[in-house]
Design goal:
By secondary structure, this protein is α+β, with helices and mostly antiparallel strands. The protein folds into two domains: 126 residues, Four Helix Bundle (Hemerythrin (Met), subunit A), CATH 1.20.120.450; 85 residues, SCP2 sterol-binding domain (Nonspecific Lipid-transfer Protein, Chain A, 2-Layer Sandwich), CATH 3.30.1050. It contains ten helices and four strands; from the N terminus they run ααααααααβββαβα. Helix 2 packs across helix 4, helix 2 packs antiparallel against helix 6 and helix 6 crosses helix 7. The radius of gyration is 18 Å and the shape is globular.
Length: 264
């Protein structure tokens, strides 16, 4: 039986994730926005600017597919691999109060638009086209990951929530993408993923008898697929060569292969 996704529930979680990161930066003095984060060359301003830029791109994809396609064509003729960094760099030069207002407006508009996208409609993107629910899930993933960089910069330890399930789900769904973006054929065999959730329950995907298996804390899996930690710094266990290879290259985001983070 196909799984029915409650789009409104996913969008509600997207709002909550954005609000939690917003609270981290809302009262920061202007000077703090220039603090470096674990992402090389990126300040807190870069992180928020990236979220604002990507929310605007998602909004464009949801409201004007032709304009988004034209933008993609333009990028293809230039240096598409640099567009994300360029967007963050430009946004980071904006005064913090204006940048924060821009991010708030974009994410609010996106949360209002996504539930109105017609059922069955796919939104264009920099990777494969996505359903509105998948777009909302992707925005949760990025908001969580970049928010984590902000929190780390500020010395704040974020408490894992049930919203991590969205990040983990996207990490599982993008298994093949991680191989394809590295010009490597995806494994043919199914995987079984069993993750310990923040509330002590288990989140699982794939057939129970799959030979290729991943087990461990959900938080560590989410950190790995968003490339916020090195595999060696997690408690994840891979059974099977293909499962092990996947953990080395896992990438839940679109675009070229990520650089990952060095081992602690």
């Amino acid at each position: 039986m196909a799984c029915v996704v409650d789009l409104n529930a996913v969008v509600s979680d997207l709002r909550d994730e954005g609000a939690e990161i917003d609270a981290l930066v809302a009262e920061l003095p202007t000077s703090a926005w220039a603090m470096p984060t674990p992402a090389a060359g990126w300040t807190i301003a870069h992180q928020i600017a990236h979220l604002a830029w990507t929310d605007q791109q998602a909004l464009l994809a949801a409201t004007d597919a032709d304009a988004f396609a034209a933008q993609l064509a333009e990028l293809a003729s230039g240096s598409p691999e640099h567009v994300v960094d360029e967007g963050a760099e430009i946004g980071a030069k904006t005064p913090p109060d204006e940048l924060l207002d821009h991010w708030r407006a974009g994410r609010t508009a996106l949360a209002e638009v996504l539930p109105r996208v017609p059922a069955g409609h796919k939104l264009p993107w920099y990777g494969p086209p996505m359903s509105p629910a998948s777009m909302a899930t992707a925005r949760i993933m990025e908001t969580w990951a970049h928010g984590l960089d902000v929190a780390d910069s500020l010395g704040v330890v974020r408490v894992p929530t049930a919203r991590l399930r969205h990040v983990a789900h996207l990490g599982v769904r993008t298994r093949d993408w991680a191989f394809l973006v590295r010009q490597s054929p995806p494994p043919a065999a199914p995987f079984r993923i069993e993750l310990a959730a923040p509330d002590g329950t288990t989140w699982s995907w794939g057939p129970e008898d799959a030979a290729q298996r991943i087990t461990g804390p959900a938080l560590h899996f989410c950190l790995l697929v968003t490339q916020r930690t090195h595999r060696a710094d997690t408690e994840l266990t891979a059974t099977g060569a293909d499962a092990g290879r996947w953990l080395d290259i896992a990438q839940a985001f679109a675009g070229p292969p990520g650089r990952g983070r060095p081992r602690r």
